[in-house]
Structure formats: structure tokens, C-alpha cells
Amino acid sequence: MFKTNRILTISIMIAMSVILCSCVQDDDFKVPNDLGIEENKGLEALLSSGAIEVSMVELKLEYANNYRKPVLIETDVYIKGYVSSSDKEGNFFKEVFLQNAPENPTAGIKLILNQVETYNQYNFGREIYIKLKGLYIGEERVGNGVVAIGGETATDQYGTTVQRLTENQRAEHLFRSQNTLELTPLQLNFSEVNTSHLGLYVQFNNVEFADNLEGKRYFDPVQDFDTLREMQACTNDIGYTNFSLETSSFASFKDALLPFGNGTITGVITKTFDGSAIVLALNDLSGVTMTESRCTPLNIEDFDIVFKEDFESADDDTDLDFEGWTNFAQAGKVKWKERSSDGNGYAEFNPLGSGNASNIGWLITPGINKDSQAYTYLNFKAAQNEVRSASNTLEVMISTDFDGTNVLSATWQLLDASLPSQSTPSNEFVDSGLIDLSSYEGILYIAFKVKGNGRTTSLSGAYLIDDIYIFEKD
């Protein structure tokens, strides 16, 4: 009898061992295609319920339009997204980022939940549906600028935030489809990144870690939680452009040495804990391939100045009438003026007092003949005076088919420049940065276009332009 019981006991132990081993999540874990009856039923019920799919942009606007206070979703709506982050290597914690498409995504959002090792269930590229009724949209930390989906709210002396979904909420509101898609990283330059890219899976090319980081590791052991490492790029740029990589103290690769070559890096756009900076976070080290030779940036001293206008010959308070320039009033009677103050000349568009319901003024440079093979950059300075509305705008554009006369029949493309905002002190000139014109060919025209009016105080602000330069290097 004892012998029989002993054999039975051993058999039970072996069976239990097999069961336990089958539950272990090792490195060979494979995400099953079978989602389980309950989850399948939940997704089927959601899609057949008449609930309306909303976009991530619409969802985030609910929060923005509520004076950035958490919003309880009370209607039968849902969103669909694709998992762009992975916590398998410990660089993300109790959060899942989703983007709205597997290729060329235009919006992302964060989902916060009280669950670790989410990669086992919400694996990279997995298609996810979220039933939103009863959940909240807001920020996990007040003022950090990262909109998240949460299950509850909490209020302290800093404001009201959203809290993580409970396990019950997760099971009730989150549904995987059987689709796991390959995500194609969005190709970006450092200078192009903005808050609209938060949560997106992206790739930067021709980048490297800063010169002073040779021999350093991803994580600095003197820090407690996160380390920022500066990256740099010099593709067709004068000097470097920079961006930061953030690594958690819990990342499995934190002690790996930073590569010191040049190449590509792929990860998720997010923000630092306090929201003060936009950064890149790796899912794992497979996103880093830096084996090429380090780059050498262009030097502005090697460039020739092919166009310069500093307006030093301006006659104060007359319509600007410089040789070769076009000064055109598209709406209203106001044109750009020549101005001089404290010995400094500049151009100004000011609709104040015009009485016109709309004032739109164009100031266009003479044509600049560009060498098709040359590196070419534009630089200028701009200031604002009493601009009080986002509708009172300054735009900078380029055309290669303007005939010198017919402004509105030409093709104009917006240029990305640093411009003064409502918060910029009045009459304080802002440097535009170096604007790359290298991809354009032929005769180039640069236009400065202002919209405002002379009837509404909030739209009658002025814009000033000075020190326009175009640099070129073969």
C-alpha cells in the first residue's frame, strides 16, 4: 500500500511539474493565435453592438477641449490601435503605447494598466480594440502632455489625473484581435519630431551618440530612474541636430555599452517623467544598428552668401519698394512697410487701423538662381508686435514657378521655420534656424505672408522681418 501510494505521489508530482513548467514565461514564449472564448466573445459583442469607432485624434481632443481635465467617456465608442511599445526588456512599465496604423501612422495614445509583462498579451504589432464607455481620457501626471486612457481619476494639490485600469476593467474593456501586424517605423529627422508623434514607432537614420559618450553605457548608474543620452545627426545639415534617448534603470540592456558608430535607431516617441522633453525610448537593442563611420557636419564658414537683405536702406513708414521685390496686398489695402528704428532697418506688416475686415500681405524676394547640386540654406530673423491670436499668422513659403507678377497663380510650399509666437516679447527678433532648400532647383522665390485685419484688436498684430540670408555650397 505504501509503495502504491509512493508511486501515485511521484506520478502526481511529475504531472504537477509539467503543468507548472507549461506556465513559465521563458524567452521562447510564443503569443498564441487562439485568444480564448471570453475575449473572442467580448470583441464580437463590441463590434456588433453598434458602438462607433472614433479616432485617436478625436479622443485626445476631448481632453484638450475640456481645459485639459480628465474626461469620462459616457457614449458607446471604441478605438482600434496597434501596439507600438514592448515591456519585454523592462524599458516600459505598466503602460502600452498604441498607434492608429501599422504603416504611416498619424496619431498615438498611451494606455495605462495595472499589469506588468504586458508583452505576453499585448505583443508588439497586436491589433487592439478598446471599449471606451466608462473609461477616462487625461494625463497620468499633470502637465506632462501625454494623453492616456485610464480607469479612474485622482486629485491632489497639482490637479486631477487618470489612474491605471484595474484587472477587471482591463478584461472588460480591452480586446485583442487575432491580427499581429508588422509595424513599419515612421521615418523622421530629429527636427521634425513634435507632440503629434507621441506613441509612434519611428526610425532615425544617419545618427550617432554624442562625441563625449564614447565608452558610456545606456544607463548612468549614478542616477536613480532614467538616463538621457544625447544623439546627434548631420545629414545635409550645418552642424549637428540633436535628440535624446531615454533608458530606464529597469531595462535589461541598461549596462550595455553605447555603440560609437553611425547608423539607425528605432523606438517609440514619448516624454520624460515630468513632461519637459520629448524623447525616444527603445523596445530593445535590436532597434539600434550603428556600425557605419561617424559623420562630419557641414561648416557654415565653408558656405558662400548668395543672397542678403538687411533692410538698412529702408525709408521709415513707406511701402517697401526694393528692386526686384514683390509687395502684394491679397486682401485689404495694407502692404509691407519699410521701417527703421534705432539705426536698424527692417520690413513690417501691420494691419492696425486699416479698417479692413481682412488684411493679407505678401513680401517676396527677388529670384535666386540655385545650383541644382548645391547645399542651400535660408536664414532670417522675425519678430511680432501685439499678436494676440493664433489666427494672426506669419507664414514663410517658397516657389520655383513664380513669374515675378502673378502671386496667386504660383505654387507655394510652406517652409518649416522657427517663428515668433504670442508669448515672444514684442519686437524681440527670433532666429529662424537654418532652413534646408537643397532639394529645390531653378529660380527660388521666398515669400513672407501675414494674415490679420484692421477691425479686431486681437487680429491686428504686426510682424517684422530682418536679416535675410541664403547660403550655398557646391
Q: Give the overall pLDDT as a whole number.
A: 88
Briefly, what CATH class of the largest domain?
Mainly Beta
Quickly give the structural class.
mainly beta
- Biggest sheet layout: 9 strands, mixed
Beta-strand percentage range: 35-45%
Number of domains: 3
- Low-pLDDT windows of residues: 1-33
CATH topology of the largest domain: Jelly Rolls
Determine the fraction of residues in helical runs and give it as a percent range: 10-25%
Number of strands: 32
How would you describe the shape? globular
Termini Cα gap: 95 Å
Protein name: Choice-of-anchor J domain-containing protein
Pfam families: DUF5689
InterPro entries: DUF5689
Could you characterize what this model shows?
The protein has three domains: about 40-180, OB fold (Dihydrolipoamide Acetyltransferase, E2P), CATH 2.40.50; about 185-295, Nucleic acid-binding proteins (OB fold (Dihydrolipoamide Acetyltransferase, E2P)); about 300-474, Jelly Rolls. It is built from four helices and 32 strands. The radius of gyration is 28 Å and the shape is globular. The chain has helices at about 1-25, 35-45, 55-65, 165-175; strands at about 50-55, 70, 75-85, 95-100, 110, 125-130, 135-140, 145-150, 150-155, 160-165, 175-180, 185-190, 200-210, 225-235, 240-250, 260-270, 280, 290, 305-310, 320, 325-330, 335-340, 345-350, 360-365, 370, 375-385, 395-400, 415, 430, 435, 440-450, 460-474. Helices cover about 10% and strands about 40% of the residues. Strand 16 and strand 17 form a beta hairpin. With about 475 residues, it is mostly beta strands. Strands 1, 2, 3, 4, 5, 6, 7, 8 and 11 form a nine-stranded mixed β-sheet that branches. Strands 19, 20, 22, 23, 26, 29, 30 and 32 form an eight-stranded antiparallel β-sheet that branches.
